[in-house]
Amino acid sequence: MDYLSDCYWTRSGLKCLFASCRVIRFVVRHVKYFLGLRFQVSGWEHLQTDGPYVIISNHQSSLDVLGMMEILPDRCTMIAKKELVWAGTVGMVCWLGGIVFINRQKTRDAKNVMSDAAKTMLADQIRLWVFPEGTRNQNGGLLPFKKGAFHLAIQAQVPIIPIVFSSYSNFYLRKEKEFKSGTITLKVLPKIETKGLTADDVTTLSEKSFSVMHSAFMEISSQTTQSNGPVFPLSAPTTRMARDHVVGNHANQAL
Ligand SMILES: CCCCCCCCCCCCCCC(=O)SCCNC(=O)CCNC(=O)[C@H](O)C(C)(C)COP(=O)(O)OP(=O)(O)OC[C@H]1O[C@@H](n2cnc3c(N)ncnc32)[C@H](O)[C@@H]1OP(=O)(O)O
Ligand SMILES: CCCCCCCC/C=C\CCCCCCCC(=O)OC[C@@H](O)COP(=O)(O)O
User: Fold this and answer.
1) Is the pTM of the predicted complex or chain greater than 0.80?
2) Which sequence ranges are marked TM in the entry (predicted)?
3) Looking at the 3D structure of the chain, how many domains does it have?
């Protein structure tokens, strides 16, 4: 019955196929084995929070989806750009997962959708994951945060849980098309309460969130970089044996 009641349109129109999110989580969690990625998660205890909340995280690449699925809490879906719905299988899976699509080119529409989402979060006890940078970014830091996630949390009066993914630059360079296996550290930070805050507090809340996430990003990225080796072109073999062979060749050349 619980499964069925999750599986139809709610009164606000947000699709709530959260059972599907569990299926998506289960399936996507296996992709890391094919890519040779490992995840180290710290701060699990901060996700042990009852009721709705807003998760915010940095956004470097589509690979983030793998990390999301490592820790995705139950009854949690995401805010995504509307273009994703047309992205074939991915779009269909996003739609089934109840993802909330926004039009980034039309701020007023996006704000309305997010205000509706704030109401639905409370009515249906849903958690929402937002990427406050608003776009993918691999510049070695965090982009200035957009305000939507903070308005959302304040409107719903729910806590924000910041999550930081360590830099991928030690194993994946998108522009240079270079990739190898490696470890990604995910750090869940203590929740930030929004009870009693109003729209006037959005900027302060956003700056506070940025500050704690930026510090955590720098900390875990330097630690994780030290434990990963050099990055290889995407055309290079990525299995451990093949990699050792390549490393061996490079070492020989160096000699
Ligand atoms: C086969 C296997 C398949 C597996 C599939 C697995 C599925 C997983 C899918 C994962 C999906 C991941 C998708 C990731 C993305 O798509 S990221 C891109 C989309 N997300 C976002 O953009 C979120 C962040 N953006 C925002 O929150 C923005 O604020 C936005 C609402 C979009 C508005 O943007 P913009 O106008 O550019 O910027 P500002 O933030 O500066 O806002 C302008 C002013 O409006 C005020 N504002 C903003 N939001 C609100 C609001 N909700 N209510 C009231 N007012 C709002 C804001 O304060 C600014 O005004 P002031 O300057 O403060 O006066
Ligand atoms: C060699 C590495 C290749 C990467 C392989 C990734 C494997 C991930 C496996 C399955 C998940 C696929 C889901 C893709 C979801 C894409 C979400 C996404 O990243 O959307 C972009 C959007 O946020 C911002 O767009 P822009 O940066 O503004 O345009």
Assistant:
1) yes
2) 84-102
3) 1
